[in-house]
Design a protein that fits this description.
15% strand; globular; three-stranded antiparallel beta sheet; 300 residues; alpha/beta
């Protein structure tokens, strides 16, 4: 009996040694980076770019795209439900931080970078040169018919016009409340609240006269729209950059190098083209993102 116990103990120790020396025993759990986006075309593409670049560099990624508007995405970051997502400097300044408008791109970026670090322990990586500025647009023919070139012109005739846009534009500091603060009290005949992806369909089909627009929307050229001049300087610059939890970046500093390498490539013209591939040609954001990254030599 004693001999049997010795044999069993010997086998047990051999098994322990084999397990401790096996590759699985030495492999630490690879962290999962939770990449999110807000709920419109450009965000889907950018979120996919971030996710695909991280995956190509050995990270495991969990996609949480199409979360919702800015308050939802920001809250998810603060509550550790996601790790990073693309955000715009102007949105961070006005909607999240609720600070005064500033039209200097460098000053706005430096402000949001500093304040996010102090208030939320979040890090802004490098901003892209693109400026997806908030704007309002009309069909060129309609604007010319009514003699509307600026937002001041629009406000003077707002009571006879229908505006279409996403629900949050009615509440955001850089939406209708901001327009009223800068351009005076006014109301549209109607505000049609729709999914962001349906804005241009509505104006193109004559269901609205004015639409909420953004500087990198592909439909602006495709549908012969004109962006009304912000003659009183309502909107700050809206450069995009990844915003990431500091804890995650500290543990995975390589993420900054990977995503900062993408930033210089994202110009207004590039994003307009990529956005229209999805919103106009109905391609999948993941396919558009992958094709662009491959063309730029960032993916094999």
């Amino acid at each position: 009996m004693k001999k049997v116990l010795q044999i069993l103990l010997g086998m047990f120790f051999i098994l322990v040694i084999l397990v401790s020396c096996s590759p699985a025993g030495n492999t630490s759990t690879q962290p999962v980076i939770r990449v999110a986006s807000k709920d419109f075309t450009e965000q889907f593409i950018l979120g996919e770019m971030y996710a695909q670049l991280l995956e190509a560099n050995g990270f495991k990624v969990e996609r949480k795209l199409n979360l919702g508007g800015t308050p939802i995405a920001q809250k998810a970051l603060e509550s550790n439900e996601i790790d990073l997502y693309p955000e715009y400097t102007g949105t961070g300044l006005l909607t999240v931080l609720k600070l005064p408008v500033n039209t200097d791109p460098a000053a706005v970026y430096n402000t949001v970078k500093s304040e996010y670090a102090n208030r939320f322990n979040l890090v802004w990586l490098d901003p892209a040169p693109m400026n997806n500025t908030q704007a309002v647009a009309m069909k060129r023919s309609k604007a010319q018919e009514l003699g509307i070139e600026t937002i001041s012109d629009l406000v003077a005739q707002a009571s006879n016009l229908v505006m279409v846009g996403p629900p949050e534009f009615q509440e955001r500091e850089d939406g209708l409340p901001g327009m009223r603060q800068v351009y005076g009290d006014f109301s549209f005949k109607e505000y049609k609240s729709v999914d962001p992806g349906l804005r241009y369909q509505a104006i193109n089909e004559g269901q609205a006269d004015v639409t909420v627009a953004f500087g990198t929307d592909g439909e602006i050229a495709a549908f012969d729209l004109v962006i009304l001049r912000d003659d009183k300087g309502l909107w700050p610059p809206y450069q995009v950059a990844p915003v990431i939890r500091k804890e995650v970046l500290d543990a995975n500093p390589k993420i900054a190098e990977i995503l900062n390498g993408l930033a210089p490539l994202l110009t207004d013209e590039i994003m307009q083209k990529l956005n229209y591939e999805v919103s106009g040609k109905q391609r999948e954001p993941a396919d558009v993102a992958k094709e662009f990254l491959q063309q730029q030599g960032l993916l094999k």
